[in-house]
């Protein structure tokens, strides 16, 4: 029997000492560009022993980085916290393998250390949940752990209430007088598979001050990321809401400072969209930006999906990022010091074919245009689970290599160097004929420049539902020509976009409006014109015998 419930709360964490560690949806087309992107990698370090190891989170400290995750030992999974210096060299680690519950020492069966932060007092607080066996039942509890600056255990705070409600924490932020934690849970009398997204607020000692459930779907809801609101006091919680196990949408909840809901919004499509992303941010205009993944019929697979809203919850823009027929997902994003956003995407997640599991860092501006793409790829699997901007303006990515739960998979930490890229200028308005015939090929041209002198690719949108794909490369300033055939009458607008070899995108050009017509429609226009000049019209009738 599996219980999300604890009995009499007499518990002690038995820990290892801190010691040095041993061992409208827009598709982004990446065709023919991956090899050209600057990887920008300064170093990659792996950490682990003989079984499965993974990092789920990383935070920046004064002298390096702190990571949390889990590691396997004889088939059981234990929390794993590792402190390294700014070059990735190990300093100490922390784990826990046993749990004292109601006076009984219990082995931990499963554990996730899901989120960790470097606190303002120079110490560390992490979220974790623990599953252990007690009297032939599997017991699950969630809570916070505080470690001192050297990795020594200070306290454990159980997040839940005996025989009333349970909670699984996913991430946390520090506020002036405590912590706010995202996650999911339910009251004890809730039906199975009807979990709620949740927020919990504690003081600086981990004591619960307030908690709130948010339940909207018919099946279950989950909260996976949170941030403070910049428009007024309160918080933004993001995650997903399910109506059935295979029907879900993105979820955004805005609350006041006491965790009371003010608004909530959902975003999705025909198919399944889920956000297990650990990060969300409120944008400068009061909107929200978040990421995750979704199934899209056009690509016959799962793509990373990014959503930006305005201040009242309406969608400003959304973007897909991925390759057809694969699972591409995004677990983290970061807001940069210059108000741009870097999404950490794992391509071909757990794939068996193709280029297996590369990490792409994709920077967007607030208008949803790519600024640059950097790739950690190659023959090995590289899974990125959390990204943070470093003190030098670069980025640090935590994750793993190897397959999920494979014993040869190690936790990884990758440092990306600072990188700047100027997006291409807006392309010239397409040049070419505007009075055209159907079923006839016409050629148009444009050009633009790149301040960095990068080579450019162009994508043409012909206004009839067709696009050219990326054409190139072309030298900066050179003309790009492309041809198209229209098969139906109508009013169409031709526009074109450029991107450079680092993935940076321009604005769309000004439109060239065209109105293709059939030959019959041209003849009708001619006859109507001639009818206005009767003498000419009568002469032509006599001449042609009509």
Overview of this protein structure:
Strand 25 and strand 26 form a beta hairpin. Helices cover 4% and strands 52% of the residues. The protein has a domain of 75 residues: Sandwich (Immunoglobulin-like), CATH 2.60.40. The protein is mainly beta and 546 residues long. The N terminus is likely disordered. Strands 1, 2, 9, 10, 11, 12 and 13 form a seven-stranded mixed sheet that branches. The N and C termini lie far apart (92 Å). The longest helix has 13 residues. The chain is built from two helices and 39 strands.
What is this structure, in a nutshell?
The chain is mainly beta. The protein has a domain of 75 residues: Immunoglobulin-like (Sandwich), CATH 2.60.40.10. The chain is built from 2 helices and 39 strands.
Structural key phrases:
546 residues, Immunoglobulin-like, 6-stranded mixed β-sheet, 2 helices, 39 strands, 4% helix, disordered N terminus
List the topology elements:
Elements (H helix, E strand, L loop, with lengths): L1 E2 L7 E5 L10 E3 L12 E7 L5 E8 L3 E10 L2 E10 L4 E5 L1 E6 L2 E15 L5 E11 L2 E11 L5 E6 L6 E11 L2 E10 L8 E8 L4 E7 L5 E9 L6 E10 L2 E9 L5 E7 L5 E2 L6 E2 L5 E9 L4 E9 L5 E7 L7 E7 L5 E7 L10 E7 L5 E7 L6 E7 L5 E6 L10 E6 L24 E6 L9 E6 L5 E8 L5 E6 L6 E9 L11 E3 L4 H13 L2 H11 L2
Parallel strand pairs: 1-12, 3-26
Antiparallel strand pairs: 2-9, 4-33, 5-6, 6-7, 7-8, 9-10, 10-11, 11-12, 12-13, 14-15, 15-16, 16-17, 18-19, 19-20, 20-21, 22-24, 23-24, 24-25, 25-26, 27-28, 28-29, 29-30, 31-32, 32-33, 34-37, 35-36, 35-38, 38-39
């Amino acid at each position: 029997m599996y219980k999300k419930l604890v009995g009499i709360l007499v518990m002690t964490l038995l820990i290892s000492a801190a010691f040095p560690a041993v061992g409208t949806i827009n598709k982004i087309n990446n065709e023919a560009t991956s090899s050209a992107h600057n990887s920008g990698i300064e170093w990659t370090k792996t950490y682990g022993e003989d079984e499965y190891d993974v990092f789920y989170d990383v935070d920046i400290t004064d002298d390096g980085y702190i990571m949390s995750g889990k590691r396997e030992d004889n088939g059981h999974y234990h929390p794993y916290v590792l402190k390294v210096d700014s070059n990735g060299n190990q300093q100490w680690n922390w784990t826990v393998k046993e749990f004292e519950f109601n006076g009984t020492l219990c082995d931990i069966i499963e554990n996730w250390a899901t989120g960790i932060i470097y606190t303002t007092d120079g110490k560390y607080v992490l979220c974790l949940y623990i599953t252990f066996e007690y009297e032939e039942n599997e017991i699950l509890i969630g809570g916070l752990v505080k470690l001192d600056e050297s990795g020594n255990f200070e306290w454990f705070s159980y997040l839940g209430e005996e025989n009333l409600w349970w909670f699984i924490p996913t991430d946390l932020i520090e506020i002036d007088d405590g912590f706010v934690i995202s996650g999911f849970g339910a009251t004890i009398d809730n039906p199975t598979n009807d979990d709620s997204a949740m927020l919990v607020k504690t003081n600086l000692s981990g004591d619960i001050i307030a908690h709130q459930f948010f339940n909207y779907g018919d099946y279950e809801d989950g909260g996976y990321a949170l941030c403070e609101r910049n428009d007024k006091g309160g918080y933004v919680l993001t995650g997903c809401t399910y109506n059935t196990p295979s029907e879900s949408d993105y979820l955004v909840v805005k609350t006041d400072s006491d965790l009371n809901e003010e608004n909530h919004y959902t975003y999705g499509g025909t198919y399944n969209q889920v956000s297990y992303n650990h990060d969300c941010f409120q944008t400068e205009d009061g909107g929200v930006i978040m990421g995750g993944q979704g199934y899209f019929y056009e690509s016959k697979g799962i793509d990373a999906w990014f959503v930006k809203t305005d201040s009242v919850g309406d969608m400003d823009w959304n973007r897909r990022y991925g390759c057809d027929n694969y699972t591409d997902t995004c677990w983290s994003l970061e807001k940069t010091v210059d108000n741009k956003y870097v999404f950490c995407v794992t391509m071909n997640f757990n794939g068996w074919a193709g280029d297996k599991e590369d990490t792409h860092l994709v920077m967007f501006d607030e208008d949803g245009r790519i600024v640059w793409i950097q790739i950690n790829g190659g023959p090995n699997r590289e899974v990125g689970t959390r990204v943070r901007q470093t003190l030098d303006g670069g980025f640090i990515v935590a994750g793993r290599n190897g397959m999920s739960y494979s014993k040869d998979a190690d936790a990884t930490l990758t440092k990306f160097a600072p990188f700047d890229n100027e997006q291409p200028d807006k392309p010239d308005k397409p040049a070419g004929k505007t009075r055209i015939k159907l079923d006839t090929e016409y050629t148009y041209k444009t050009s633009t420049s790149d301040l960095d002198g990068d080579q450019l690719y162009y994508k043409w949108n012909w206004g009839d539902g067709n696009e050219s794909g990326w054409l190139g490369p072309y030298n900066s300033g050179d003309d790009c020509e492309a041809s198209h055939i229209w098969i139906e009458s109508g009013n169409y607008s031709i526009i074109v976009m450029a991107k450079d070899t680092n993935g940076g995108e321009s604005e769309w050009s000004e439109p060239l409006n065209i109105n293709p017509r059939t030959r019959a429609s041209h003849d009708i226009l001619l006859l109507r014109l001639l009818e206005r000049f009767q003498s000419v019209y009568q002469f032509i009738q006599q001449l042609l015998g009509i």
